[in-house]
Write a structure and sequence with these properties.
The protein is of the alpha+beta class. It has one domain: Leucyl/phenylalanyl-tRNA-protein transferase, C-terminal domain (Aminopeptidase, 3-Layer(aba) Sandwich), CATH 3.40.630. The chain contains 8 helices and 10 strands. The protein has a 7-stranded mixed beta sheet, with helices on both faces. A 3-stranded antiparallel beta sheet has the order 1-3-2. The longest helix has 16 residues. The chain is globular, with a radius of gyration of 16 Å.
Amino acid sequence: MTTANADLSPELLLHAYAAGVFPMAESRDAAGVHWVDPLRRGVLPLDGFHISRSLRRRLLRPGYAVSFDTDFAGVLAGCADRAETWINPAIFDLTLALHRMGHAHSVEVRGPDGSLTGGVYGVALGGAFFAESMFSRATDASKIALAYLIDRLRAGGFTLLDTQFTTPHLARLGGREIDRDAYRRQLARALRLPADFNRQGPVPTAQEVVQRNSQMS
């Protein structure tokens, strides 16, 4: 089903996420969005995230800085900056509106010069976090963003990290597929939880992220 841009609203997007479906546009210039409800859903169990040796070295190496919700629009633009993208202007604007409402969050990774080198963003409802997209302009920048995101979700009381689909990249990090019924059961439980993206407080150190992950995995 396709919904015209004029009929879209932030509230409609939240209702769709809570029902287990998510929006995508056919292209950057598409006039509306269609709703996706895959038979097999990608999730990344928060206790199953795998930090490889190479990613551990990258995390512990200086030369980058991580922040949360300091440049949501920049992360969103970085994710949309591809030859082929499902983020059209309607989705861009509506997602910005969700951020202003406190429902959408970003992780920013910056290089030594302060420029945005990677990030991830998504939508939070209850104890569910719907990771929409991530991007990288430097080696492993998106993986670093994901490691910090998962650490923050654990601290905030989240139980479900929805990745929509599973790619080989996500599978190497611990992502897997579950069927639609199993996903909806997890979603229903997560939506009832009083999770808080900001519960963690200040940005942790890389050492803290690595240590906590090793305790959970």
